[in-house]
Write a structure and sequence with these properties.
By secondary structure, the chain is of the alpha/beta class. It is 38% helix and 12% strand. It has 13 helices and seven strands. It has helices spanning 28-34, 68-77, 81-85, 98-103, 106-112, 125-134, 139-146, 154-158, 170-174, 185-195, 208-215, 218-238, 287-296; strands spanning 3-8, 46-48, 51-56, 117-119, 201-206, 244-248, 267-272. It has a seven-stranded mixed beta sheet. A hairpin with a 2-residue loop joins strand 2 (46-48) and strand 3. The chain is globular and about 45 Å long. The N and C termini lie close together (9 Å).
Length: 297
C-alpha cells in the first residue's frame, strides 16, 4: 500500500462564476471528486470509506494573503509556519521556518516510520546551478534534500523515472533546448503509477496553476488545467485499489482570475483510497498527519 501526494500550487475553492476556470465540467478529474461541475464553493462535502472531498482552510488564523513559503511548509510539516513568523511569507521558506523542512517534514517522519518516500519531479541543470549559487531552495526541494533523497535530473526524465514540472516536457524541449521528447499527460501518469510500485510515498508538485493565476490568463489557465486534468485522470484510472491518492493545495489563486494575487479561499482536499484518516481535517496542517496515519495502516 502506497500513498501518492499530488500537490497543486495555487488552487482554491472559489465562486461558481465565469471568473473561475475550475468551475467547468471539462475538468473530469475534479468533477470525479466533487461529483459536480468541476470545483467551486457550490460543491458539497463527500465522505466515503474510500473517497473524500472537502474544502480546508489555508489561512491558519493569520491575517493577509497566504503565501507559498509558509503555506507549503505548513502543508509538508503540520506546523503552522505562518504563526511561527507572525505572517504569511513566500515564495521561498523564511529562514526561521527552514528548520521544520530540514528536520520535521513529511519525508523525515515517513523515513523514521520505516517507509521509503520519493519526490518524482525532475529539475534541469540550470535549476541546480542557480539554487546552489544562491543557496535558495523551494519547500519541496529543501525537504527532499534534507531527507537525504536525491533530486531527479535530466537523465531520470530520459529514463522515464521522473516527471517535469509541466508534465509533458515541452518547456524542457522548447525553452531550455534540452534533448528530451515531448510526451502526452497519460504517459506521465504511468510513470507515477510505476513509482508507486517501488516507493511507499510519492510526491508530485504542479506549479503552473499558480503561475496562470498570477497572469490572470484564461488561455494559460485552460491550457495548464487541461494537461493537469488528463494527467490526473490517467492516475485515477490506473491507481491500484490498495493505494491512496491525496490532492490538495497551499493557497488559492487560479480560482479567481479577477485578481492577480493569492486569495483567502479554502483549498480542496481530495482523497481516493484510505480516506478515513482525512475525515477530520480542517486545515492544511492536518494533511501530513493524515498521510502518516495512512502509511501506518
Amino acid at each position: 500500500m502506497s500513498v501518492l501526494f499530488v500537490f497543486i500550487d495555487g488552487v482554491g475553492v472559489g465562486q461558481a462564476s465565469d471568473e473561475n476556470p475550475l468551475f467547468s465540467d471539462k475538468l473530469r478529474s475534479f468533477s470525479t471528486f466533487t461529483k459536480s461541475k468541476g470545483l467551486s464553493n457550490s460543491c458539497k462535502e463527500i465522505f466515503e470509506n474510500n473517497f473524500l472531498y472537502k474544502a480546508i482552510d489555508a489561512n491558519l488564523d493569520v491575517e493577509g494573503l497566504p503565501q507559498s513559503g509558509t503555506g507549503q511548509t505548513s502543508l509538508f510539516t503540520g506546523i503552522n509556519a505562518s504563526r511561527v513568523i507572525g505572517k504569511h511569507f513566500g515564495p521561498y521558506p523564511h529562514s526561521k521556518i527552514k528548520t521544520y523542512l530540514k528536520k520535521e517534514s513529511l519525508f523525515h517522519r515517513a523515513i523514521e516510520a520505516g517507509k521509503k518516500p520519493h519526490f518524482i519531479n525532475a529539475y534541469p541543470d540550470i535549476f541546480f546551478d542557480k539554487s546552489e549559487k544562491k543557496d535558495r531552495w523551494s519547500c519541496t526541494t529543501l525537504m527532499t534534500k534534507s531527507a537525504g533523497i536525491p533530486l531527479n535530473r535530466q537523465e531520470d526524465v530520459i529514463n522515464e523515472k521522473a516527471v517535469t514540472a509541466e508534465i509533458i516536457q515541452s518547456a524542457w524541449r522548447d525553452m531550455l533546448k534540452l534533448d528530451v521528447p515531448q510526451i502526452e499527460p497519460e504517459e506521465a501518469s504511468i510513470r507515477i503509477i510505476k513509482a508507486l510500485e517501488v516507493f511507499d510515498l510519492v510526491l508530485y508538485e504542479y506549479y503552473l496553476t499558480d503561475k496562470a493565476g498570477h497572469k490572470q490568463s484564461f488561455e494559460m489557465a485552460n491550457r495548464v488545467l487541461s494537461i493537469l486534468d488528463r494527467f490526473l485522470i490517467g492516475i485515477i484510472e490506473h491507481l491500484n485499489p490498495n493505494d491512496t491518492l491525496v490532492i490538495t493545495s497551499d493557497h488559492g489563486n487560479i480560482e479567481d482570475l479577477s485578481v492577480k494575487t493569492h486569495t483567502r479561499n479554502p483549498v480542496p482536499l481530495m482523497v481516493m483510497g484510505n480516506a478515513k484518516p482525512f475525515f477530520e481535517a480542517k486545515t492544511i496542517l492536518d494533511v501530513t498527519p493524515a498521510i502518516l496515519n495512512v502509511l501506518k495502516d
